[in-house]
Design brief:
alpha+beta; 168 residues; two-stranded antiparallel ribbon
Length: 168
């Protein structure tokens, strides 16, 4: 099932919803389609609309201010685009830069995506002790960045230029 990006009336990213939920919001006149999938259409007995990729709510929704995105293993893998921070291959695990046994915490700045081989090789050491420099430093994504990254690389590339540029 494809995800659809939901923008607030002020064009701020709010969340992602399923394609079916996005169509319902459009049909109920609660949202308008800002960008559609080029080849997909949603057809019904009395309806034929392009499948929405990005929708914008018609009314502004007040969202409580969230200073940072909540940490999660899935979030780290998505942030690093499933690429190992040590070798660049496909990552399937999360590694702690400062191991938990040395006081390292589950935080955005202390965790990186890693392939199982490098995670095992680094073991209970820091990257310096293991002689394994990081290819890129971990960073803390904003809530909006985390949501846009969660769309996936192919969906992210297809976003409107003005939206993708703000998130990159």
């Amino acid at each position: 099932m494809r995800d659809t990006l939901v923008l607030n009336a002020s064009f701020e990213p709010l969340s992602t919803v399923t394609l079916n939920r996005a169509v319902v919001l459009v049909l109920q006149d609660k949202a308008v389609v800002e960008q559609a999938h080029p080849e997909l259409r949603m057809r019904g007995a009395a309806v034929d609309i392009p499948a929405p990729r990005v929708i914008r709510l018609c009314r502004y929704v007040r969202v409580p201010f969230r200073r940072q995105a909540p940490w999660s293993r899935r979030g780290v893998l998505v942030r690093d685009r499933h690429r190992c921070a040590y070798c660049g291959r496909r990552a399937t695990t999360v590694d702690h830069v400062v191991p938990r046994s040395h006081g390292g915490q589950d935080t955005w700045l202390n965790t990186v995506a890693s392939c199982a081989e490098d995670n095992h090789r680094k073991a209970d050491r820091t990257p310096e002790q293991a002689g394994m420099p990081l290819l890129r430093e971990p960073f803390e994504p904003t809530p909006a960045d985390a949501m846009l990254l969660a769309l996936g690389a192919d969906e992210f590339e297809a976003l409107p230029e003005w939206l993708a540029r703000d998130a990159a």
